[in-house]
Amino acid sequence: MPEKASPPPPPQSTQTTAFKGDWCPRCGLIISVLTLLFFVSGTIGCSQTSSEKSLNTVFTGPVKPISSGLGSWGPHGTKRVSLPNPCWSMGDIHLFLPSGHTGALRVPVIFFSHGYGSSNPATYNKLIRFMVSHGAAVIFSTYRKITHLPGKPNNYELLYCGFREAVRVFGSSLDTTRVGFVGHSFGGGATPWITLTAINDLGWGKEAAFMYIMAPWYFYGITDSQLATFPSHVQLIMQVYSDDQVNDPAIAAELFNTIGLERDAKLFVKLHSDTAHLEDGGHYIYRADHHVPKSAIDPKAVYDAYLYHAVFRLCHALFNRAFIDGAGEALNPIPGEGLANRGSWPCAGGVGKMEFIENPHFDQNALGYFFPFRSILNPRRSTVVTPSK
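^ that's the sequence the OP posted. Answer follows.
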């Protein structure tokens, strides 16, 4: 069971920085109803009833986990501390630190924004533990399932408030000059606003900063002018999945092409589903769907080699590039080398490489997604994709 932190001294302020974006209060009810239908239909399929005992999930598939190099586990175990979110009485904040860490040496910090309804950090247990294994602290903040209540902080603000509180309480152990912002789905949509606000208002990430955004939902709270002048030292990997029926990849592509980062500071990755053919004549399907970053305690998620080759490797590369001078591989790899080469797949037929797209473009009028680009919920639905900088 996680250790509960001692009650901290009263914060100087429990208010987050005012959300100056275009949050849509009238959309809150619509989003909440849609999400309820989403859960009922099983599209998300994220159960939060699993206990900590469920974390020993079984690795499946013929391709083994990566044992060395990018995507392999680091030397550190994980210890966890939880504390309340001062902006939301029902929300906890979870801090994951490398085991054995005494606080004598400050460690870089990764701020993790989860997908909608996935407020149990066990849902991302493997990914969180992987990041901590390489010597980083991970802060996992939570938010409510109702997207907005009048007079209350919205979900972006709840995430941000949780991150600030964890840093306030445990700041002596954390090096906020070196930070990463990781987000999936709704949390991916929140990541640019949180990153920009943390850098501009709090001065985090002065030495190094990155964003790893996976299958993002709509991006609120950030304008074209803010994107155009986004801090140039930030590294970005934007990742989408070929069989994601939840979030339209055009959402990710539009922001990727709009954000004012140089080519060598950002990478757009599309993961495709594929089939491994087994020696006994059977086959194993590696699914590139909305649940790739999750652990298998989510009934829709699978723990297999895709988590290592398609998620751990990318996160590890960002970690090295941002936090370790001169280490790691180039963010934009040469085809067939670097990140594009996901290693040898020991099965007939193999499994294809990830696709790296320099100027991503997807049909913005596609209707095959639960949350399409042209939805009235998307504040950027009128934006036309332009060539990447």
